[in-house]
Structures are given as structure tokens and as C-alpha cells.
UniProtKB/TrEMBL annotation:
Descriptive protein name: AMP-dependent synthetase and ligase
Taxonomy, superkingdom: Bacteria
Species the sequence originates in: Dinoroseobacter shibae (strain DSM 16493 / NCIMB 14021 / DFL 12)
Gene3D superfamilies: 3.30.300.30, N-terminal domain of ligase-like
A biological process term (GO) from this entry: fatty acid metabolic process
Amino acid sequence: MLDLGRSLIASAARDPDALAIVDGDVRLSYADWLRQISALVQGLADMGLRHGDRLVTAMQNNHAAASIHWACQMAGITIVPVNWRATADEITFFTENSGARAIACDGSSVDAVRASATDLPCLTYETDVDGAVRFEDVVAGSAPDASPKASADDWSIMLYTSGTTARPKGVPRRHRAERAGTLAHVAQNLMPMNDATLGVMPLYHTMGVRSLLAMTLLNGTFVCLPRFNCADALGLIADERIGSLYLVPTLYHDLLEHPDFASTDLSAVKRLGFAGASMTDGLLKRVQAAFQPELFVNHYGSSEIYTFSIEQDAVSKPGSAGKAGLNQDLRVVRMGAGDPAAVMAQGEEGEIIATLAGDEAFEGYWQRPDANEKSLRDGWYFTGDCGHFDAEGDLYVTGRVDDMIITGGENVSPVEVESCLSMHPAVEDCAAVGLPDERWGKIVTAFVKRRHAVSTEELDAHCRDSALANFKRPRRIIFVSELPKSPVGKLLRRELVAGNYTPEPEETAAG
């Protein structure tokens, strides 16, 4: 298999004049981008970085971050992209844990980098750090065309998973796994040559990385949006003729709610994809009606194994995550058994596991044998998600094993409750969790952000009249101003359980 560096060179040779990347006034063809990347390869070498070293990057989605990503692939350097919102302590952890030899930052992260305990060589973009090398100076220079120094078996990237109670875990991935995941992404989303996508999912997240690599393999255009803003996103979708959108459900929701949405030219958008969280039935129908795409894909996966399953017609079967991806095999096994052979019958709920033999799979966490022991068993990855297969062999993901609400001895999926509530026209957003109760152990509690006035009684009647089983109905409904979410739009149910939410103001609630 080709490594990623040779893949980039092949794209530049195939269509050197195709538009590769857009970032504000920066518009680079593949030939021009390869020249810039070659200069960066030389610049990283001048900083002392060699094949096999690791470079931490804390940057927004700008052309510098994308170029550095590709320069690392060419040079055989493992890129370690981290959240640009990271604190100084987190920056220190990432650099020390990864064993990085250098760090790159921009204006969004420079204060944290300066305040961190790291004294590594630094590459900066549109900002200054004492003694740092400036990206602008490096790419302004000339350098010979870079030659790929990595093989398909070299490490390409190390992503860090989100930490909850423990430190984040490093997920190292090889060139061959990254390329296999990208090729499957292209095929499963029916993406054409010279496609264009909105580069808004962060490059420290597997969705953002896949969008960048997919566009480059297709001689497509990666349109940078450094920080999500609805008005800017809608403008770029229209102006740059975006053909494929790949977002978390929260961002689709926000686009639809923006006042500019109705007047935006969406005619170029043919393919929609979502991942990172489930999409409620209500939002699914609204997005379908608004965009009327040719393809609407529900992608279920993770940083560890990019694709678990794919549903290419998300609207036809709401809630379904479809069938195993091109490089995958899935099972649902008894929760808590830790045994890949403890397969559940059709329709029975259990933990979803994925084979580690697939081309997209990682091989284990970075310096975390405890995490490997918990999640990797007999050639299978235990996802921590629960779900079931239906009669047609389609997978339904019902939530995290830890999020399952056990009330009066019955299991209740929060996703099922949320999808029911989302179908009420007054519900803009919602989340379901289990809160402690002396009699039931946990009671199903719904947190609702209202679009307009609605009472708890009306929502309860809506649930009673739906197909939701009676024991799954929310016994308590709390109206909130916002729901807590991660930087990439994942619902943080644990924050609601901990009481970290903002109730709706009294005057709004009264209305």
C-alpha cells in the first residue's frame, strides 16, 4: 500500500492545477501546495525533527495546520494534533506523554503554549514565541521537492481521545490504516474526483483528518473554516460550491437555525454525512427536507477504528447505523462479559465490538496497557457502546454502556427517549439521563431546550401518545438554556448528571 506522502505526490502529478486548499485569501493549486509542503519538510528538518519523531500541533483549521499535517506525512514524522483550546497543563501533558520533539501553534493556542512547562522548539503561525520558527518565513523560502521518507507501516498520527475522569489516551495510527480509512470514506460517501468539502471539523478529530485526506486523494478542495461560525459556513458552502458536508449533528442543527440559511444557495451540496453522535429523528427529517441531498450517510466509528458501520440512506431508517463498513466486522455481545464469543441474539441489546483485523484499525493505546486490557480482547475492540441488530441485520446504537439508564430493573436507552422528544415541534434540543431515585434507583430525566413555549404536561402527553414504552417516559423534565457539549458537538450527559447545566430563566419558562 502507498504511504500518505506518495499519495500526495501522486495527486499533485495527476492534476497539478486543481484547487487544493482555500483559506480566506489563500488559494493554492496542488502544484503550489506541494512546493509549500516541501519547504515545510525542509523547515522541520532544520528544527531538528527526524523520521520517527513526534510533533504536537495545537492549531485551528487553517491552511498552515493542513500543510503541517501533510509535511509530517512526507517526512515520516508522527503528527500529534491536540485541541487548540487546551490549557497550559494539558499542553504540558500532551508534549510529555507523546514524547514530542517540537510543537506548533497559532494565535488560538499561543498563550497556553507560553504558559506550559514545555521548552520544545516551536513553529508558529500568525503569532510569535521567543526563539520560535515562523511558518510564514519557512514557506516563503525555497526547497527541493520533498521525497517521501515514510513507509505504509510507519506511524502517521496520534490522536488523543477525550478524557472524562482520567487523562486522555493516545491513539497512534499507521499510514496504511489512515489511508485505508480514507479510501473507505471516499467509497462509502460516493465522493467524486475534484469534490469540495468544508474543513470545519477540527484536525485533532478523526472526522476532520478524514476530510482533509479524502480531498487530497481526490484532487478535491479543502475549504478551511478555522472556527465554526454559521454565517461564515453558509457563505463558504455557497461561494466555494461545497459538494460534500461531513459534520456532527449539532452543526447541522445550528445551520438550520441561522437566519441566513433560507437564502443560502445549497444547490452544490449533494452528499451529507454525520458522525460523532446520534442524530435525533426530528433533526434528521429537518435536515433532509432542507438540503434534499442525493446521499445522506450516518457514519458510526471512532478514533481507534475509523469506521464501524455505515447507513447510506439515513432518512429511510431513522436511528439505524446500518451495516459494517468495507473494512469491518461487528458483533453485539453480552454486556460485561468481556467475551467476543458471547454473541447476543438478533434484537437483544449488548455491547458492540469490532474486529481489530480490519485495515482501518489501530493496534493499541499509547503507553496504556491498562486501557488495552480493558478494550482489546482476542482480536476485538470493545467499543463501550451498546446496541442491537434488527431483523434486517442493521445495527442500532442505543448509547454508551455507562449512559444506559436502569430504572426499576429495566434498561432505557437515552437515545430512544431523545428521539421521541425531538419529534415535538417545540423541542429544539434535548437529552435524557438517569438521576438517582430512592425507589427506582434511577429515574428517566429529560433536559429540554425549547424552541417555543411548551409545558411539561404537553411533552408528557406527546411521549404517552408515541411508540415509547411507558416505563421509558421521562418522569422529570427540566427546561434549560443550553445543553453541555464538547468542542466537536458531542452531548456531555455526565455534566447533566453532575448538575452542571443552566436552567431556563424564569421569565422564559413562564412564557
